[in-house]
Amino acid sequence: MGNRKNMKRRIGIILAVLFIGCHTKKVESVEQKYLRWVGDIEQDIAIDRKDFKLCNGDEKVIQYFNTAQGFRYKGEKTKLFKTFQKNFIATHEESQNGLIRIRFIVNCKGETGRFRILESDFNYAKFHFKDNIKNQLLEITKKLDGWELLKIKNQVNDYYQYLIFKIEKGQLIEILP
Prior knowledge:
Layout: H1 2-22, H2 76-87, E1 98-106, E2 112-120, H3 131-143, E3 150-152, E4 155-157, E5 159-168, E6 171-176
Antiparallel strand pairs: 1-2, 1-5, 3-4, 5-6
């Protein structure tokens, strides 16, 4: 008798689930496109150069932290820092302190594009630098022409690069990495 009671209960539960399942509204699925990796830079036709082309497609851009080849600029960081020292005009403003990160892609021809800026204070909280500071850094970065090619297994690759500018009182103190 107990088995029949349990069987009737199970059948009742199954029928209830099926009944409810048949009478629920169909929800339209929304297809979302996710980037391959966190930090990938999609082309944005509103801000990116239209003539900047990747050689191997968006799915094959090498992440800068996945190579053991180090910083890839002719003359290394010394030359890079001297270029910024020569061209950056400090503002000497007490309130302008923090980090400005500029990320971009170097293609297989050594050309750069898809520049993105991220700003923070020294505690990594959101901070907005004055336009004259970040625009200067962006323009100088865009004009750099010493990016070396990244060759892996005899193939030249597109790769991500970044520069982090440490700003204190409107002055450029250091460039990372």
